[in-house]
Amino acid sequence: AQKITQTQPGMFVQEKEAVTLDCTYDTSDQSYGLFWYKQPSSGEMIFLIYQGSYDEQNATEGRYSLNFQKARKSANLVISASQLGDSAMYFCAMREVYNNNDMRFGAGTRLTVKP
Amino acid sequence: DAGVTQSPTHLIKTRGQHVTLRCSPISGHKSVSWYQQVLGQGPQFIFQYYEKEERGRGNFPDRFSARQFPNYSSELNVNALLLGDSALYLCASSSLPGQGEGWPQHFGDGTRLSIL
Questions:
Q1: A36 CB-contact burial (10 Å; exposed 0-12 / middle 13-18 / buried 19+)
Q2: Is residue A50 within 8 angstroms of chain B, CB to CB?
């Protein structure tokens, strides 16, 4: 069963504005990690941010922040002050501590930043 | 420091052939995972290795196999190639095998495999 859901196939944002990319997940584990990756058209997967299931504070990394709502099982990525170089595919992923050590990815959201 | 390196970058094969893809992890990383990414989809987990032992396997047929060497580099082997094996194959390394929080994986640029 699909465990990571990204409901926005495509998103547009004006340069310098903030944008939120949605991600919901499903797990019965108490211990897990949530990750966001950026994939430009060149293909490489770039790690952006990580949130552990026991972390009480939302993770932040520069212009990226993760809005973690554990009870709702959501882990939305917020990008502030969008730049043209932010245009890419964005993937949400989850890794469960006690489940096969694999990382499951969502279908991705294609973000386009308009000048 | 060098990131995760994969070779070759591109590969063209025909149906029924065999292929070997290679991956060198970030220095100090002992865990290597392999993913298949079909065009338009998110990556799908194939294998994870840690300290030369298989720690996880995704839902892929036995035609797919992998191994990890003493220097922590890894190979992914695919036998009897099918058209559906055409994809970007990504290798990722991390410092932990996955039995704890705080283990982001860092990816290589991938090998783009095309099957004719």
A1: buried
A2: yes
Distance CA(A101)–CA(A87), nearest Å, equals 30
User: Which of A45, A102, A108 is the closest to B58 by Cβ?
Assistant: A102
Residue B46: which of B65, B18, B20 has the closest Cα? Answer: B65
Q: What is the pLDDT along chain A (115 residues), one digit of tens a residue?
A: 558 999 999 999 999 999 999 999 998 888 888 999 999 998 889 999 999 898 889 999 999 999 999 999 999 999 999 999 999 999 999 988 776 667 899 999 999 999 9
Q: Does B55 touch chain A (CB under 8 A)?
A: yes
pLDDT at residue B102 greater than cutoff 50: no
**How is residue B23 written in tokens?**
């991956």
Pairing of strands B31-37, B87-94: antiparallel
Count of A-B CB contacts under 8 Å: 76
Measured CA to CA, the distance from residue B114 to residue B7 in angstroms comes to 14
Instruction: Decide if B6 contacts B23 (C-beta within 8 A).
Output: yes
Radius of gyration of chain B (CA): 13
